[in-house]
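Researcher: Let's do a round of design. I'm pasting the structure tokens now; please hold your answer until I've finished.
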């Protein structure tokens, strides 16, 4: 509630000052005056329910990016982030059978939990793009993937 009032006050001040400058330079002020009137009308018509609606819609607009979590070297990633990246890696592999994909995902996650795939020589990880490039111990034979550890 207070934030919306502050925002309206700032908008009001901004358009008032802009209007002064436009009048000083003898410019067309119709658009600025209409915006100023909108801000003033908006300020008067704010009710509690509108404020809660606006806060909800504005909070939905906020986009949080977790990319910085993945911009670390492989051995500094947390266990959860390693699992997420492993799942992404497996989903990008050319495996047609869904059951084989799930089995490989589970195997890789199990190895990460057992700390067998936590060393950086076991996983080639691109920390700039935040993705697994390859797993050297992953072998592809006759359309199936196996891990030799």
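Researcher: That's everything. Go ahead.
Model: Designed sequence:
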């Amino acid at each position: 509630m207070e934030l919306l009032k502050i925002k309206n006050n700032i908008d009001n001040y901004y358009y008032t000052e802009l209007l002064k400058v436009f009048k000083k330079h003898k410019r067309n002020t119709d658009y600025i005056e209409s915006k100023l009137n909108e801000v003033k009308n908006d300020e008067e018509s704010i009710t509690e329910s509108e404020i809660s609606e606006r806060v909800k819609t504005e909070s939905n607009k906020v986009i949080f990016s977790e990319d910085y979590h993945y911009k670390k070297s492989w051995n500094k990633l947390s266990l959860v982030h390693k699992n997420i990246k492993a799942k992404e890696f497996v989903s990008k592999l050319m495996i047609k059978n869904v059951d084989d994909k799930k089995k490989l995902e589970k195997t890789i996650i199990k190895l990460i939990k057992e700390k067998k795939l936590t060393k950086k020589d076991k996983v080639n990880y691109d920390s700039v793009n935040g993705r697994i490039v390859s797993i050297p111990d992953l072998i592809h034979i006759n359309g199936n993937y196996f891990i030799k550890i």
